[in-house]
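User: Can you help me understand a structure? I only have the sequence.
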Amino acid sequence: MLLGQTLEDLVDENEVELFFADNGETTLELIQSEQPRLVILDVMMPKMNGMEVCDRVKNDLGLQDVFIVLLTAKGQEVDRKKGSEVGANQYMTKPFDPDRLLGLAREVLAL
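Assistant: Let's start by predicting it. Here is the structure, written out as C-alpha cells:
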C-alpha cells in the first residue's frame, strides 16, 4: 500500500502512530476514540464513504481541529466542491505525489 509506505517515514523519524481501517464505519470509530490530528480518507470506502466520514467528523462530532485530507480518483470540480462543503481541509487526487503528501503530513503535525 503506497499510502502506508509513504507515511512510514513519519513513524521511523518521529513518535507518530498510524492507524488503518478498511471501511468508513471503522474509520469513524477510530477517529472518535483516538482523536488524531491528521486523517487521510479515501473517498471510495465501503459502509460509509470518505465524504460521509468527513461530514460526520467535522459537522456532527464538531472535531474541527482534525485536519482531513480526502484522497480520491475523482478530480472533477464538483467533487472538490463537495469535499470542501463537508469540511475537508485538503483534497488530493490519485495518483498522489508521495513527497507532497509526506510534506503536508509533516506540516500538519508540526514535524
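Now, to help you interpret it: The longest strand covers residues 67-72. The chain has a mean pLDDT of 89. Let me know which part you'd like to focus on.
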